[in-house]
């Protein structure tokens, strides 16, 4: 998804909570975007496909999930800024070392080199700490959403007589779809977003 991403972070690590046993591995980077689906709600037969990698897409995805991830990104913006500042300082030291290597006193060069090495270790430590904290916070925020998505997907399948849903995000290059009505991605996301919007606007009792 095209939202602000912290430079030290990998992809979200909670994708395994999205769907039941037939989707227990997180999609790898570089997957092609899900093809446009038509008539997903009218899929005939018992086997359909879904692209869960689209769920967190900013434009096509599940609005509640996208909003939650953006919120976590905002929480960690100060750490991202701090790391960028440290990285810039480190690069300045390296540039100074390269420019003055032939003219500066060897002792001064050594001190500056040690300073750069110390700064590099600090950056690595802060990056690792931030990644751990981010992943933990992301898990706390999105795990309940993924659980709700899984429950809604189960109900969605039962209502339409679907007995098997294959997550095509997990097996790229293996599944060849010749009938777009088998792809329920767009229809499912629309249904989930509609349900979520209705729930958010319903008066509280």
State the secondary-structure class: mainly alpha
What general outline do the C-alpha atoms trace?
Answer: elongated
Strand order in space, largest sheet: 1-2
Main beta sheet, described? 2 strands, parallel
Specify the helix fraction band. Answer: 40-55%
How far from one another are the termini? 35 Å
Alpha carbon gyration radius: 23 Å
Runs in which pLDDT lies below 50 for 5 or more consecutive residues are 1-43
Number of strands: 2
Mean pLDDT level = 78
Fraction in beta strands: under 5%
Order of helices and strands: EHHHEH
Helix segment tally: 4
Describe the SSE topology.
Blueprint (H helix, E strand, L loop, with lengths): L46 E4 L12 H13 L1 H24 L5 H54 L4 E4 L17 H17 L4
Parallel strand pairs: 1-2
Helix pairs in contact: 1-3, 2-3
Description:
With 205 residues, the protein is mostly helical. Helices cover 53% and strands 4% of the residues. It is built from four helices and two strands, in the order βαααβα. The protein has helices spanning 63-75, 77-100, 106-159, 185-201; strands spanning 47-50, 164-167. Strands 1-2 form a two-stranded parallel ribbon. Helix 1 packs antiparallel against helix 3 and helix 2 (77-100) runs antiparallel to helix 3 (106-159). The longest helix is centred in the middle third of the chain and has 54 residues, at 106-159. It starts with 46 loop residues before the first strand and ends with a helix. The model is unreliable at 1-43 (pLDDT under 50).
